[in-house]
Amino acid sequence: MTQQNQAIKDHAFLAAIAFSLFLLLYEEWQWAAQVYYFFNLTNFATLPLRLLGTGEILLSLFLVISFIWASFTATKGWRWLYFLLFVAAIVPQYSYGYTLNRFMSVRDLYTAFASPLRLWADSASFLATASLLPIALYGGLLWGVRRPEGTGWKLFTAVLLTLLLAGSLVFHADQHYLNLRLGMRFYSESPALSLPAMFRTVAATLWSETQSARRNREQLDYRAEKPPTNNIIYIIDESLRGDHLSINGYARPTTPYLDMLQAQGLATSWGIASAAATDSRKSNSILISGISQLPDTDYKHEQYPTLFQYAKAMGYTTYYFDAQTAHLWNSMSINDLDYVDHWINSDQLPAGQTVDFAVAEQIRAITNQSTGNFILVNKDGVHFHYNDRYPMEAAIWMPVPPTGAYGDVVLVSNTYDNAIRYNVDGFWRRLIPDPGAIGNTLYLYTGDHGDTLVENGESWMHGGSSQQEARVPIILIGQHAFDLYPSYQASHFNLFPTLLDLMGFPVEQRPHSYALSLLTATADDSTARYFEGGNSELILFEAP
Predict the structure, then answer these.
(1) Does the pLDDT value for residue 44 go beyond 60?
(2) pTM score, two decimals?
């Protein structure tokens, strides 16, 4: 090797170190000194935990230096691949950091892949311009630093595999200490620079997928001798705040039809209930599996029998309506469809603002013609962007913010309430057009999570750790003889056993002990409610 080549390599290495240190300091400045805060928290932790966290942070810096140095020594074509990989990691990480003050998690990655393309377009409003500076600086250095002889695919592959392997090792180390850290209101993972943090998330997702493929649902031995005599409709709305429904005392008449059903004695509301989690995938997996212990580090939500299994055991014809996507996204697998007689997804439904209305009309047709149906619905609901959820001529509360400019609390509430009035009220008017003919059909209604509505200056709508994101409704609609206690402080965890009771599934035949059923819970049974935040931490729910 000539002295000139050695000098070029030395300059490339020093430039890689300098840029990596800049990235560390820049991200510390952007994300509220997370490494500094981490080291302060670890003063109260055990020595092994402090050593683990310190080692992971140093490993993160080493990985960034290695990646940058390898890219500086690559040939021109391979430099483009390094650059694209850097951008692909930095942009989503900074966007999540800006929005939720954390980097992407496995749950976020699953949610992203499960979301329809229109939600990907909606998320563009959260792209962080803070990513432009490190991208521009890296690009300038990448093509400005003189390269020596030039490396190719071998080093690129080695760097890629090293990042994934290191990410996998860090993920497993963090998993080992997860419960301890949550118990201390601690991180569920140590802070890392954005680039290796993305590879940690990718590696953890790949590992989760391989483990998920090995998990099997528990089977139910019990079979009912008599066919069911009712219809049960389980409706999970999207992004629905329980405290923005007039049936729960909200000042604006956002749900006049539900108000009318309540006045007629057909609807019982448990007020502002607690969600299980603040993102759709997590909360839906709990609503379908009935698990009640969080954090679910053993992935019980992929092993417990689903509602569809219980329904089939009781002789119901099962329907699954998904107005959001055309693929399974809520921890259900293709094997779970063995217990779903009819899967109607977004490919079989009209697109646009009336998709939920089409679902309501199909359900009404089913219940008008038959008995013994269990129907689970994932509504399209009032997901952000709220302006897209209703036609502007249907707006009642004005003004509304321009799409993508959701900073004014009053304007955001206006458009959100308009969306509820149009979507929720329109849905129920079509589902039960004649309350007097409701017959033997029972409807259990909730939302998967609430939204912040930027009330406290949040830059995100859900997936975080605020109280607003956990406020959901729980409403039972129908003619029945149950003695209900709506003063009971309800949560998502009560819904699964409530549905089993509505099916008539014997308690002694259930393989697991679930939370209290709303058919038996009284006000005196109320206990503290918790939900899982965006960092997988347990948070005490505080009703407004």
Answers:
(1) no
(2) 0.80
